[in-house]
Prior knowledge:
CATH superfamily of the largest domain: 2-enoyl-CoA Hydratase, Chain A, domain 1
Number of strands: 17
Bound molecules: hexanoyl-coenzyme A
Distance between the termini: 61 Å
Number of domains: 3
CATH class of the largest domain: Alpha Beta
CATH architecture of the largest domain: Alpha-Beta Complex
Radius of gyration: 26 Å
Structural class: alpha/beta
Largest sheet: 8 strands, mixed
Number of helices: 20
Mean pLDDT: 96
Amino acid sequence: MKNKIEDLLKKKENAKLGGGQEKIDSQHSKGKLTARERIELLVDHGSFEEIDIFVKHRATDFGLDKQHFAGDGVITGYAKIDGRPIALFSQDFTVFGGSLSEAHAEKIVKIMDAALKLGIPVIGLNDSGGARIQEGVVSLGGYADIFLRNTLASGVVPQISVVLGPCAGGAVYSPAITDFVFMVKNSSYMFVTGPNVVKTVTHEEVSFEDLGGAETHASKSGVAHFIYDNEVETLLNVRRLMSYLPLNYKDRPLEKNFEIERLKPEEKLNMIIPDNPNKPYDMKEIINLLVDDNDFLEVHSNYAENMIVGFARLGGMAVGIVANQPEVLAGVLDINASVKGARFVRFCDAFNIPLLVLEDVPGFLPGTEQEWGGIIRHGAKLLFAFSEATVPKVTVITRKAYGGAYDVMNSKHIRGDFNFAWPSAEIAVMGPKGAVEIIFKKEISSSSKPEAELEKKLNEYIDKFANPFIAAERGYIDDVIEPSQTKINLINVFQLLKTKVDTNPKKKHGNIPL
Ligand code: HXC
């Protein structure tokens, strides 16, 4: 027995070297960690239960019959993050560049199938040259097997992709189907076709980084939700994200202890909204003052910055926050902001994360670029997402709620559970100037003093509509609240909403305007 155990340990030790020390050194020299070092950083110490360490590929062409590495370029298994279970895979670039063979794909599929049965999240650490070229179509089939699992698991368990190296060709579609994509600046990239193919087809010259690097995907395409300077920071923030998520669609996010008795009114909130309604302010200041420990995990922080989305805790309860940002484009809803918001709302709804909406929106962005780009279709996504969401939904209108955007941003009419407004709220079909110029066009143009007439009508309109009370008289606003008291109001109603049950009509699935 002793010999057998020694032999086993030797085999495992050997397997843990992946493609060998030289390849590990090369990985380090690129500023990258190895697949195993990444797992150690990501999961609770000692919690990793590896499976399939001895799996090998079965290919024989192009000399592969003479090249075998135990594990075949991917490490798979189960572990814990903050004591809660996850399934994970970590591609090993030191073995055939982390490329995906039939056996490699089977290992990933195995833990995904198990994660669905167990109801636990799947985290994929991607670092791969794509389909193992020597295996041809078998490898493509392996990818499709993974894409199918990604799709079937969507909305059942959270899926997180961490891109820590190359991710090219069709391989990008697995991360794209998952819920969140993390990337690392200057060492990870994603593209359907690389710079060389781009040059041949479109004659454009572009670097790897500009075409598909972390900053590109965080700011231009919106493919990456989170980017960080290095792998350590990235993996620690994956842990941070996990702290807000439940294990599956039946589970709820963890609630932390919170002593509401010690909560005091936040007077600073009474001073943020400027007297001049056209002056911007930073909605993130409001968010930070409202959430527990001023701790807000922003998602997509560099993309469509006129819309803010992210996770935080309120009175210990995890919430998803969707907010307009008056500091960027006056907080207007455009195509990218609508899509960003809609995807986030749907994630929260799928995984029982209550939604808090902070609203200051002057409407949808006008112009040919937006109309021809399909703002109707994309804006409808946000409307659809809020309307179908059955999780607790609470809105606070801090200032403007104009036009269709009033309806869209979780209004009472689309099942907002509690809709609050600050006294600074202006709820109307449009801003005062635009409204007055339309409805009093004749009076103003026929007046001997058109400017004075405009001013008079403007003041009348502001007195009548630029406030929250007409909406409150109708019950569209449940209460007009003092900003300093808002956190207390929110904790009270989110506590109350814990027993909320709401459903949608039975159907196969809705048809969100994609
Ligand atoms: C087999 C591969 C491989 C692959 C890399 N390697 N990619 N082996 N299949 N796809 C091997 C290399 O031969 C090399 O082996 C080792 O991995 C490291 O690769 P290097 O090229 O030395 O590393 P580096 O210079 O860092 O370049 C990394 C790279 C490059 C940019 C990823 O290797 C590359 O361009 N690979 C091909 C990428 C690609 O076109 N993949 C197919 C995409 S299409 P040795 O033994 O020399 O160390 C696709 C379709 C998916 O994936 C479709 C799904 C539907």
